[in-house]
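Design job #97: recover the sequence.
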């Protein structure tokens, strides 16, 4: 079985290329700006629902901002 983790640095790069500030993006995704900072730094993994909202707000598919992780290896 495989799951997906978010690639926080990719989220940050795409957000910055869009010219969007962290606070504005966090509001669009409906998360706390501090939580977004941790996601972009790679120290937090959001729920699948938040991952989907991030991808939608960036205008990309979920595969662009996530990577597959083997569930057995992650355990």
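Job complete. Output follows.
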């Amino acid at each position: 079985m495989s799951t997906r983790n978010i690639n926080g640095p990719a989220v940050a790069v795409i957000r910055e290329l869009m010219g969007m500030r962290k606070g504005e993006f966090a509001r669009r995704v409906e998360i706390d700006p501090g939580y977004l900072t941790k996601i972009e730094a790679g120290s937090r993994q959001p729920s699948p629902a938040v991952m989907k909202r991030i991808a939608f707000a960036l205008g990309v598919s979920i595969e662009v901002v996530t990577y597959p992780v083997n569930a057995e290896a992650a355990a």
